[in-house]
Amino acid sequence: MSVPKLWTETIDAHRAAVRDAAMDAMAALVAKHGLVAVTMSQIAEQAGIGRATLYKYFPDAQAVLTAWHERQIATHLDQLAAAVDPAAPAIARLEAALNTYARLQHHSARHHGGELAAHLHGSGHVHHAQQELRSFVRDLIAEAVRDGDLRDDVAADELANYCLHALAAAGTVPQDAVQRLVTVTLAGMGARPR
Amino acid sequence: MSVPKLWTETIDAHRAAVRDAAMDAMAALVAKHGLVAVTMSQIAEQAGIGRATLYKYFPDAQAVLTAWHERQIATHLDQLAAAVDPAAPAIARLEAALNTYARLQHHSARHHGGELAAHLHGSGHVHHAQQELRSFVRDLIAEAVRDGDLRDDVAADELANYCLHALAAAGTVPQDAVQRLVTVTLAGMGARPR
Questions:
Q1: Yes or no, beta carbons of A35 and B37 under 8 Å apart
Q2: A GO molecular-function term, please (chains A, B) (predicted)?
């Protein structure tokens, strides 16, 4: 479709491109120097934009980092939702989602993003996207508990938190161990082996 | 005992004090500004030492961070070992160690150290102390597997990695949820409820 773009759409696209460039720069710099060394000047240089421009989009380097992580989790959440067959029982949907999450953790740890995410994990700087991910998993767990397929002596929200932490281990194990990690994690929640 | 100190001992003590001051400064700065903002100059100022002195002990801010984390884990490992009754069966020693680890994660997350450790967790910058901690847990698991108290279809090292990741969740939950997290984590490894 070649719809002529409105001026505001062009502006929005430009803004998104600048924001994305800043976030990519941050990820690249952290991969190269480690988190500690990253400054707004470095991000601007790496992104190929002026410092003044960068400051129009982000107040500081921490904000770039947070935005990058939000973007990362939002992408993962889309992939989790896509992995789930809406017609399947909750326990099967949960297994599919957790398998996908573990594989994403495994693969992103093999790129610079993984290290960055590991730095950020549980740091309190990530709120919205992390909360959405946890709600998605929590709701699947709650449904599977109602179906009698998971333990009911621990709240679904606590189990979701346990899950996401346990599956973060997927970033540190060889490929063939990822499935075993998911099985062990599910067993903790009282899932019967399938 | 008032043994007169040798000159080399005095020097060693001084070196250790400078290193500790740098690490404490790093932890305080991260708590205040987030990881990204920390520079060698800030660490020196916060520690009350000259930049030139600081550079004699650490090549860069990342090295201070790594040393701090090593020190943190070594302290935790001592507390884990102390929590274990050598006469108890392996599964009971494992439970005691994991309970202690979860409580340490919970408490340190409530101080600046927790956030720092969360940033570092799984980042690949920590090697020796983290490896020692994992070996300690792995050996307890292997013994409990031999006793028939834990599942034997997943290697002890993979289970130890799962454990330490799952229990990192203790840093993000209320106090009364810590024990439930340990129970769920143990159940993943096939431990029978006690």
A1: no
A2: DNA-binding transcription factor activity
